[in-house]
Amino acid sequence: MDQKRVAAVADELKIAAITPYTSIDYPGCFSAVAFIQGCPWRCRYCHNPHMQPREFPPQYLHSSWGELVTLLERRKGLLDAVVFSGGEPTLDPALRDAMQRVKEMGFKIGLHTSGCYPEHVAQVIDLVDWVGLDVKASLTDAEAYRWITGLNKSDPADHVSQTLELIQKTGVSYECRTTAHPAYLPDEKILSLAKELRSRGVETFALQVYRKPKELDLPFANVGHEYPEPETLEALQKLFPRFELRRE
Ligand code: SF4
What does the pLDDT look like over 5-30, one tens digit per residue? Predict the structure, then answer.
């Protein structure tokens, strides 16, 4: 992985899109979300495949640092935080400078990450107030992780494991979240993943049931409220001090 990347300034941040106002992307905060262009993974259920290449696809509109700053100046007092999401925000060399400038404007910083770049997370974590860490499968199941993320060679689970460890060491507030579908995560696998995370000290866990977007031809169909089973949900509620089921 890229250990020697050169820092860049916030104006160079590649923003694919901005959500001006949301109450669900940073629990307990009203936030704006900046989606950063580029991701090294190719997850089978990705809702934002146009954000995977580092270059902006020409057929999509994109946003800019200037638009984010203008939005934040207008929304001072109405927004608590800015969430950097993606794509994978930590691949952008301008992320640290952007976070610093957003912080100077008085906003908290949220970070959504797949955990694919632990060393990049380490470069910004002191500026971050809350992390949403995607955990896509068991961190001891390299094969399952490769299958979901579309990688053949590297060990994505190991990178995520290192990122989790790093986040825990800093003491920053965080949640682990898993996008779930019975095709790859039947109830018994949900439970074993949850137990694994709990045994690693995770206290906040969100299960996000897969939802098929109309505009994308993704391989998994929508599932009904019978998944996961009520017993599984009950077990998850007992296991974690804070557990949330998300269906949208
Ligand atoms: S890590 Fe996220 S943005 Fe990247 S391919 Fe997977 S789902 Fe899409």
Answer: 778 999 999 999 999 999 999 999 99
Tens of pLDDT, residue by residue over 113-155, are 999 999 999 999 999 999 999 999 999 999 999 999 998 878 8
Give distance in angstroms: CA of 230 to centre of ligand 1: 29
Q: Is 25 in the pocket of ligand 1 (CB under 6 A)?
A: no
Domains of the chain (ranges; CATH) run 10-246 (3.20.20.70)
Residue 4: per-residue pLDDT = 58
Please work out whether the CB of residue 52 comes within 6 Å of at least one atom of ligand 1: yes
DSSP the chain: --SSPPP--GGG--EEEEEEEESSSSTTS-EEEEEES--S---TT-S-GGGSSSSPPTTS----HHHHHHHHHHTBTTB-EEEEEES-GGG-TTHHHHHHHHHHTT-EEEEEE-S--HHHHHHHGGG-SEEEEE--S-TT-HHHHHHHHT-SSS-HHHHHHHHHHHHHHHT-EEEEEEEE-TTT--HHHHHHHHHHHHHTT--EEEEEE----TTS--SS----TTSS-HHHHHHHHHH-SEEEEE--
Atom index in ligand 1 nearest the CA of residue 40 equals 4
